[in-house]
Amino acid sequence: MKVLCVNERTDYITHGLLATLRKMGSTVKLFPLSRIPWERQYTVLSDLIKDFKPTLIFTPGWSLNIFNLEALVRAIKKTRTFHVYWATEDPTFFNEVSMTFAPYSDYIFTTAQEMQERYDQLHKPNSTLLFGVNPDFFRPVNPNPKYKYDIILVANNYPWFPADRRFRDEAIRTVLLPLIDKGYNLKVFGVDWTNPQNTISIPPEYYGGYCPYEETPAAYCSAKIVLGLQSVNTSVTQTSCRTFEIMGCGAFYLTIQTPSHAALFENHRHLVWTSNPAETLALVDYYLAHDTERIRIARAGRSEVLKHHTYQHRVLEFRQKIRPFLGRHYLTRKSR
Q: How does strand 107-110 pair with strand 2-5?
């Protein structure tokens, strides 16, 4: 299988699904279409497809305004190349992002099982494909002194989320702010945390700056407790990609309670979740004082994601689901 992807900015997919497709025998070309002048993208992409002859074009998640969508659609139609879209922004940005790409796709994967009905209404073949972990990248590594705190959070602050989709704010108020208020040995890494004009901001002394994606395994392996935020509490399947990445590193993971965590994992066995600020403080106090239990849960969490949630599992699903439609597509194309 030859896979062409023209969005090079989604590190979690480049180092996850695409890296694993390559490892499992696919030829993957990651082409930075955004670096080509807007007006030349159609010609460049058409020539690229002609030369590379991909089995499919794969478009991931947030590809909005990164490249010329019209150029992509025109090139796909001209070359009649099979187009797979992975709607990783579901359900939060279904209308703004997913529905920009879904109508031009031959197969749609979604991280939120509940959205499949919406894609059925488009008469598009679809299925659920969760995030996962690439154990070659996210694994236990040596600690980095830069991230050696009792508690860390690696996440971005998104003050621009619409008012009706602010569960992430609730997660911050539940998981993070109580610990800052009580002065724990804690550091936050990510983007846009100290702007006082944001809905939520934190004191500068708790901000550690940006954490490059390549450093996140070391960050997770350096702290006693790694916090997690979620943007969705309405899905039984959608969870942050960091859930699998943090657990894959063998770190102790504390996040907010969601239906997806309850469906995928066991509380106090694979990870720990909290539902209110007081519970957060109690859990942190308990697990900082009980190293053996904390380490046991971290190890069990890693074992669970390696058993059920690696990108090797996801690639097998990916290939199995698209194979019948891919075959029909090329039979149809040859008959034209």
A: unpaired
297 has a pLDDT exceeding 70: yes
Residues 247 and 253: beta-carbon distance below 8 Å: yes
Average pLDDT, the chain: 96
Tell me the DSSP string of 243-255. Answer: HHHHHHTT--EEE
Tell me: pLDDT of 302 over 90: yes
Residue 141's pLDDT is what? 98
CA dist., res. 300 & res. 253, Å (int): 11
Residues paired with 154 in a beta bridge: 189
Beta strands in 137-256 (DSSP E): 151-154, 186-189, 207-209, 225-228, 253-256
pLDDT > 90? residue 133: yes
Alpha-carbon gap, residue 141 to 151, rounded angstroms: 17
CB-count exposure of residue 198 (10 Å: 0-12, 13-18, 19+): middle
In the prediction, which pLDDT does 190 show? 97
The three-class DSSP label of residue 140 is: coil
For 216, the enclosing helix (H) or strand (E) is helix 216-220
How far is residue 140's CA from residue 244's CA, in Å, rounded to a whole number?
13
Tokens read off for 221: 């392996």
The helix (run of H) or strand (run of E) holding residue 58 is strand 56-60
| CB atoms inside a 10 Å sphere around CB 26 | 17
How far CA 176 is from CA of 70, 91, 253, in Å, comes to 41, 24, 13
131-156 average pLDDT score = 98
Summarised one tens digit per residue, pLDDT across range 55-84 is 999 999 888 889 999 999 999 999 999 999
Under 8 Å between Cβ of 235 and 264 = no
